[in-house]
From TrEMBL:
Keywords: Hydrolase. GO terms for molecular function: ADP-ribose diphosphatase activity; NAD binding; NADH pyrophosphatase activity. It comes from the Eukaryota. This is Nudix hydrolase 2-like isoform X2. Residues 106-203 form the Nudix hydrolase domain. Belongs to the Nudix hydrolase family. InterPro entries: Nudix_hydrolase, NUDIX_hydrolase-like_dom_sf, Nudix_hydrolase6-like, NUDIX_hydrolase_CS, NUDIX_hydrolase_dom, Pre-Nudix. Gene3D superfamilies: 3.40.630.30, Nucleoside Triphosphate Pyrophosphohydrolase (3.90.79.10). The keyword Protein biosynthesis does not apply. It comes from Nicotiana sylvestris (Wood tobacco). PANTHER family: NUDIX HYDROLASE 2-LIKE (PTHR13994:SF45), NUDIX HYDROLASE RELATED (PTHR13994). Signal peptide: none annotated. The lineage of its organism: Eukaryota, Viridiplantae, Streptophyta, Embryophyta, Tracheophyta.
Amino acid sequence: MEKLVFQNGVKKDQLLSAVNDDHGGVIVELKEPMDTTVFQNMLKASLSKWKLQGKKGVWIKVPIELVNLVETAVKEGFWYHHAEPHYLMLVYWIPETENTIPANASHRVGIGAIVLNEKRELLVVQENSGRLKGTAVWKIPTGIVEEGEDIFEGAIREVKEETGIDTQFLEVLAFSGCRLKSMPLNLLFRNMAFSSTPKIYAW
């Protein structure tokens, strides 16, 4: 936390510690417990300072342990941006211009891998769980990219997990999307197997 001092030596309310982001805004990461009234005063003083500095978006990361501060921030004009298991992200737009804070990520990325061996044989699998379990349907290896994972690495990992076969990523073949936020963005990859693979592979 920092204190702003007027030229006459009078100390202003304590301000929230913040770092600048790359888009003219600031990011606050709350870590220490505090009284809601103290937080409200600090937040108001900080917003006034950031407005004078010409800041735009304000991001406040609230850990689950400090959830008691959320209502105070909302009353000052903040709104929910996204939530993770251990924190809530609140945002606020300072200038009287169009709000350009990006929406939270709303899609998962699904992947499918076309795996060929040196004989140009296609690797297919049968699922032992999910809606295709027990249907005797053969399909290419598929899955969901994990958080923070490179999509190409995800394609290699899914093939390895489902078949035990190591592959090398070659290219993206196609992608498709859906307007429904609950549906994944799907990408189709072509991988080459490092070793000879069977034409069909049940897992």
